[in-house]
Amino acid sequence: MMLRRIPPWTYGFWAAALMLGVIGLQSGLGSIGPTLTVALAFGAISVLVGTGQMFVIASGPGNLDLSVPSVLTLAAYVSMTVMDRTGGVISAGIAAALAVGAVAGCLNYAAIRFLRLPPIIATLAWSFIFQSFAFNLGGQATLKPPQALSDFTNWRLGWVQVMPLTIMTLSVVAALALAFTVWGRNLLATGQNERAAHFAGVRVGPVRLVAYVICGMTAAMAGVVLSGFTGGAALNMGNTYLMESIAIVALGGTSVAGGQANAIGIWGAALFFNLMGTMLNIFQADAGLRFVLMGILIVLIVAIVPRPEAR
Amino acid sequence: MLDRVRFRRALPVLLPSVALGVMLIAIFSIQPSAMSYFGFTLLFKMAPPLILAALAQMLIILQGEIDLSNGAFVGLVTCIAAIFLKDDVALAFVILLAVMAAYVALGWLIHFRQLPSIIVSLGASFIWLGTAILFLPAPGGEIPDWLRTATAWKPPLLPLPIWIALIIAIVAHLVLMRSSFGVMLRAAGGNPRAVQKAGWSIAWLRVVVYGAAAVLLVLAGLMLAGLITSGDPNVAPSYTLLGIGAVILGGGAFIGGQVSPVGTVIGALTLSLAGSFLSFLQVPATWQIGAQGVILFLVLAGRVLVDDRRRA
Amino acid sequence: MAGAAPAFLSGDGLTKSYGAVKALSATDFRWARGEVIGLIGHNGAGKSTLINVLTGTVERSGGTLTLDGMPLSRWNAVAAQKAGLRCVFQELSLCPNLTAAENTRVLHRSLQGWGWHARATAAIRSALDTVFPGHGIPLDIAVAELPIGQRQMIEIARAFSETDMPVRGVILDEPTSSLGPEATRQLLDHVERAAQAGIACVLITHRLNEVLAVADRVVVMKDGAVASDFVNEGLTRSALLASMGTVEPAKRVQGALTSRGAELVRHDGKDAEDAVISLHAGEILGFAGLDGHGQRERLRTIFDTSVAKGAAIAFVAGDRVVEGVFPLWSIRENLIHRSLKQLSKAGFLSGGQGDALARIWFDKLGVRAPGIHVPLVSLSGGNQQKVLFARALASDAAVIILDDPMRGVDVGTKQEVYALIRAEAERGRAFIWYSTEIEELENCDRVLVFREGRAVTLLEGTEIEHNTIIDASFGTGKGAIHA
Fold first, then answer.
1. Cβ neighbours of residue A89 under 8 Å, at least 6 residues apart?
2. Looking at the whole model, is its pTM more than 0.80?
3. First-to-final CA distance of chain B
4. pLDDT of C3 above 60
5. What is the DSSP string of A8-48?
6. With contact defined as beta carbons under 8 Å apart, do C11 and C64 qualify?
7. Radius of gyration of chain B (CA)
8. Contact (CB, 8 A) for C159 and C112
9. Is the pLDDT of residue A44 over 80?
10. Helix, strand, or coil here: B45?
């Protein structure tokens, strides 16, 4: 079989390339550049959220962070408010957002650990609470980012878009962390077999805590970037990222059963998702059809991907 | 030791019941007039569809799996009801049967290929949502009068939502916990290998479970359509997570084989009452969602405090 | 009597292969009505495979099966059940979330319709009362809530329970591993009674005395085939041991350990009757007793408290799949995981050092595999176990806990590993070694025997011997001593 030769985690890239080709054929080669630019930018934000989610998913079966959208929104509000109050000090805003994300991660893990709740429930309950905070902080209004932040997220050096490039660097760092740091190896060991990890001397608790904290911080960072890129923080800005973050992580080659993660593959899946949206737009496909296709693709890809080991 | 065991077995029902009771007492002390047929009808008006969706989720969790497409499927059913049910009942049922078949087919695929149910049902949720939007791009459509009157019926003695909750709880308990077939469904969740060694087909049991869940979801959708008198693709995404919450609140666990139908029904009642409770307490609208999260934590924390043996 | 009684179930030239591995090769098996067969042999000798083929849970690769003299073509779990064949599997096959009565229902298809629950309760109760009179097991709570011994009693009783399906043959795979002495005696009595009533039994056990007590015939398996087949008349333990090919390990000079090294572990028992454990450098301390009498819990608390204190301790799991193996990783990654700290600087790993460490121990343990980069789960059980040993030995741990690590390991591997453990002890490491195989404990300097959750008897030097350990396990030996 041909499929066996191609590593499953690259499917996203091939599919994205295919989409790009179809778009080029339909609206002319000249449209490829701008389409790719937009897809890279939005894809990068999805990747940022997805990378955090990847660490959590890799930490073991059942681990999932459903609070991602509300953390993203809350952090965006907090950082926009801080930037506004300080008269546009971006670093203060970013620090505030990261703090929000880190606290959210700690709270999520604390509920899992001390209330012994399934992660889905614990992160869901926190997401309600975070959502309320965001609601109180900003209400329905859109909080505008300082000009400098917007400029940064749209900054280009010639052909190169700086924001997606920065996030690509982060993906590489994440991939290296998984392969070459003690924490990364411990995370994957914990994800494969928590009890074996415990008996191999891994302190399972702190390892997982770090995964949740990273997930909170990447979601928070995505909130800041998204506010800058789209012109402000709004209450529903995070909504699409819940399902999307899980889907791109899974399609990008991370095992939902835990213990195996692929930070680079997320890019393929994220680009594919964004380009498919664009392509369906060009063909003026109905929103409904778009969802159906997306769903069928997710199911198909999961069903045909050859898995390393049946657990 | 045996008393402790029996006590722990009663816990799934006990804890959400206490939470439910506390909330009701608080509501009645603020608003004594709520303690009436009409008051109860209003407080629990939206509970029945959630109860049904939660039971569907419970069946899936019983098998050690999870269904993230639960709410989207209910939304799809409301759309099908709002478009077809009034003019052509037969056609509506054919379409409903088709989507139920698709739901069961996905359940079978999960078992047959040993796929992660989280991802497959995530994909399925997009399929149901998309199909619903194809049928009905914006909320609307028309619900036949019989369905509307049925959901607004005022039965004797108790308000309709309470009757429904009671009947569903009793039936679900009898079928799952008392019948010889329910034993097999629980056995398949608790130790599928042992069930297979005893000569049963796990695949067949799974198909039955997914089929039953599909029926419950269709009922939930029809009831919801009658209550909101229209169809809406996005009406029920919260059902997925609230349903999971109700199952866990009712003493269920994700390890498979460990759920309580009565607990789930009470859990669903608790969660749907939480909304009304907060507005009675005059919690500002902006804090209501957050307060729901706090309630979820409080009730679940109670479970941990009492039951220190159940470790993940 | 074996020759006279009509045949119940028999197999000719049964084979079973998994890929290239032959788990069962051309085995003949004859089982007469009402006959009690003792089936013995080392782990991995093919006993479980033979049972799975006989009960239809695994499809045979070759050979013929005959039931009551009629050749069988289709044979699966359902057909075997209809023929009245029951099996108590080694790993408990009850559903933990169900009650005893509900578990009975899973086995008996006819328990349905009105009043099924009452009938199921009656069936399991009468079976329990017959096999284990005075058992006192509650039938209305989930079996997960019961102690392991009671669970095993329910599983055994379920196999003997009767509805409209007949019981004609019962296969008991290590049925007594978690039973107390009284229940064990009751079970053996029942097997004899059942045989007189025409119910045939196969008893698989490591406890040769049980086999000698009840079996009409003893079948010894070795390397996936029947090695010998004795009529149980005037048969002795030593004859059986010899036929199993037990290589008596070279006895080490007992009591040679005069000067002890520094104390590495000191662990108090949970009360005055539970012995304090004191482990010194260079020492091998054995944990013995019937399975499930608190040995594993003690090992775990020792491990956890030592880890919490920051002591250098490692753990070799016997339950590989659940507690040992990282299934997605290669040999190398599995092997070095306990040593990451030594292989890293400021949290970053050095790949080359990892390779080197993995190679050293891969060679030292003689792991049979194409290289250190192949997936661990592609190896045979014994070789996987060697890698888990290597993980502990390659680490900086001064204390190594062995949780019955030789389960499912072939004899050759065992001898290699025993020698390695002794060598490592001589170099100053200390071991705590729990084993369910009594012969294995003769490698220890001292042995603590557990009973009912406590370490109650300490055996030293020449006291470490099969019968003394058995006596102490059942509480009939010498009194409690503190280690």
1. A82, A83
2. yes
3. 22
4. no
5. GGGHHHHHHHHHHHHHHHHH-GGGHHHHHHHHHHHHHHHHH
6. yes
7. 19
8. no
9. yes
10. coil
Query: What does the pLDDT look like over A122-170, one tens digit per residue?
Result: 998 899 999 999 988 877 678 888 888 888 888 888 778 889 999 999 9
Helix axes A265-282, A241-251, angle to 10 degrees: 120
Quote the distance between the C-alpha of residue C307 and its chain's center: 28
Residues of chain B positioned with their CB less than 8 A from the CB of C78: 199
Closest in C325, C347, C351 to A196, CB measured: C325
Determine, for residues B190 and C76 on separate chains, whether the beta-carbon distance falls below 8 Å: no
Q: Which long-range contacts (CB under 8 A, 24 or more apart) does B201-208 make?
A: B202/B111, B203/B108, B203/B111, B203/B112, B206/B63, B206/B107, B206/B108, B206/B110, B206/B111, B207/B104, B207/B107, B207/B108
For B309, nearest residue in chain C (alpha carbons): C145
Does A225 score more than 90 pLDDT?
yes
Q: What residue has token string 């045989």?
A: C195
Q: Is the Cβ pair A136, B287 closer than 8 Å?
A: yes
Contact B72, B129 (CB under 8 A): yes
B254 in contact with chain C, both atoms CB, cutoff 8 A: no
Interface contact A186-C340, CB threshold 8 A: yes
**Percent over 90 (pLDDT), chain C:** 28
DSSP annotation string for chain A? -HHHHS-GGGHHHHHHHHHHHHHHHHH-GGGHHHHHHHHHHHHHHHHHHHHHHHHHHHT-TT---TTHHHHHHHHHHHHHHHHHHTTS-HHHHHHHHHHHHHHHHHHHHHHHHHS---HHHHHHHHHHHHHHHHHHHHTTSPBPPPHHHHHHHH-EETTEEHHHHHHHHHHHHHHHHHHHBHHHHHHHHHHH-HHHHHHTT--HHHHHHHHHHHHHHHHHHHHHHHHHHHTSB-TTTTTTHHHHHHHHHHHTT--TTSS---TTHHHHHHHHHHHHHHHHHHTT--HHHHHHHHHHHHHHHHHHSPPS---
pLDDT-derived band of residue C43, with 50, 70 and 90 as boundaries?
low
Residues 271-300 of A with CB under 8 A from B: 286-299
Q: Any alpha helices (H) in B113-155, and if so which ranges?
A: 117-135, 145-151
For the segment B87-92, the average pLDDT, to the nearest whole number, is 91
Mutate to test the interface with A, among B110, B286, B295 (most CBs of A within 10 A): B286
Say whether pLDDT at A243 is over 60: yes
Q: In what order do the strands lie in the sheet with C225-231?
A: C85-88, C169-173, C200-204, C36-40, C217-222, C225-231
> Widest CA span of chain C, in angstroms?
76
ipTM topping 0.85: yes
Model pLDDT for residues A62-81, shown as the tens digit of each residue: 899 999 999 999 999 999 99
CA B101/CA B65 separation, integer angstroms? 19
Amino acid letter at C334?
N
The CA distance from A164 to A38, in Å, is 10
Q: How far apart are CA B179 and CA B164, in angstroms?
A: 21
**DSSP conformational letter for B137:** S
What per-residue string of b and e applies to B185-194 under the rule 16 or more CB within 10 Å gives b? bbbbbbbbeb
**Mean pLDDT lowest among A221-230, C197-206, C461-470:** C461-470
How far is Cα B267 from Cα B273, in angstroms, rounded to an integer? 10
B299 pLDDT band, cuts 50/70/90, is confident
Residue B309: what pLDDT?
A: 47
Q: Nearest by CB to A247, which of B122, B127, B131?
A: B122
Tens digits of residue pLDDT in B162-203: 999 999 999 999 999 999 999 999 999 999 988 988 888 999
C344-345 and C348-349 beta bridge pairing: antiparallel
A137 and chain B in contact, CB less than 8 A: no
Q: Which two tokens stand for residue A204?
A: 């399972």
